[in-house]
Amino acid sequence: MSKLINIAVVGLGQVGNYLLNELNTKKKDIELKTSKKINVIAVSARSINKKRKFKVNKKIFYKNPLEIFKKNNIDILYEAIGLSDGISKKVVETALKSKIHVITPNKALISKHGNELAKLAEKNKVNLEFEASVAGGIPILRSIKEGLATNKISKVYGILNGTSNYILSEMENSNENFADVLKKAQILGYAEPGNPKLDLNGFDAFAKVRILSALAFNSKISKHKCLMEGIEKIELKDIKIANQLDLRIKLLGISELKNNHLF
């Protein structure tokens, strides 16, 4: 007999919305592969009326996410509000203190408070899982924490922000300006349709670098010692100049840089 797992989902933005849809449509697949029966017993978002792929059950909807803790049978809380402090931090702290396992893709929260939240989880003997906060599709965090636990890591580099990577590549390939390519990215779902600022100003990649660095080098990285610069002011002429410089570097035989943007 499959074990029943009660789940609360807090935050129905792009990520939370996708997750809840997956939980609703793939219950049988999850049960078959894990022997766990998924039961969503609480959902919280700013609005129940927002257009979504599915209807939110009014009986389990809470506008105030802290109200969900009145239910005393939550096994896992999924936090996808996305703030570094405020209600995101309060919800996660309350869940951990209530001995509820927490899963979050919130890189802003983890990069700033991950250490103290991990200690709180350990104290209450529950899990704080944040694999999806950095390159969740690979995955990389569990590989560093477990698979490479005895290895000495000297550097970490790669493409950490898909929005920036798409925009810069598309500007180069299509010869279109930043604003036009951003609109295209929003239509395709590569950039937030409402406010893609965190992707464009560099904060998304910055938060991921802090998490990766903390795990890889076992050290908390101060935000005051990191340089962060976004791509909002990139113009088409910058792309062309970069390509010209790239060509000169190749001719000099110094390095092969093309298509290896680091963001």
What's the helix and strand layout?
Layout: E1 3-10, H1 14-25, H2 27-34, E2 36-44, E3 61-62, E4 76-79, H3 86-97, E5 101-103, H4 107-123, E6 128-129, H5 141-147, H6 162-174, H7 178-188, H8 197-200, H9 203-217, H10 236-252
Parallel strand pairs: 1-2, 1-4, 2-3, 4-5, 5-6
Helix pairs in contact: 3-4, 4-9, 6-7
Which fold name fills CATH's third level, the topology of the largest domain? Rossmann fold
Q: What is the mean pLDDT? A: 86
How large a portion of the residues is in β-strands, by DSSP E? 5-15%
* Main sheet summary: 6 strands, parallel
Number of domains: 2
Sequence of strands across the biggest β-sheet:
3-2-1-4-5-6
Oligomer: single chain
Question: What is the annotated CATH architecture of the largest domain?
Answer: 3-Layer(aba) Sandwich
Measured between the Cα atoms of the first and last residue, the distance is 47 Å
Q: What is the class of the largest domain in the CATH system?
A: Alpha Beta
Structure summary, number of beta strands = 6
Determine the structural class based on helices, strands and strand pairing: alpha/beta
The best one-word shape is globular
Question: Could you spell the SSE succession in H and E letters?
Answer: EHHEEEHEHEHHHHHH
**Helix count, DSSP H or I runs of 4 or more residues:** 10
- Roughly how many Å is the radius of gyration? 21 Å
- Helicity level, as a percent range? 40-55%
The CATH homologous superfamily of the largest domain is named NAD(P)-binding Rossmann-like Domain
- Stretches with pLDDT under 50, minimum 5 residues: 254-263
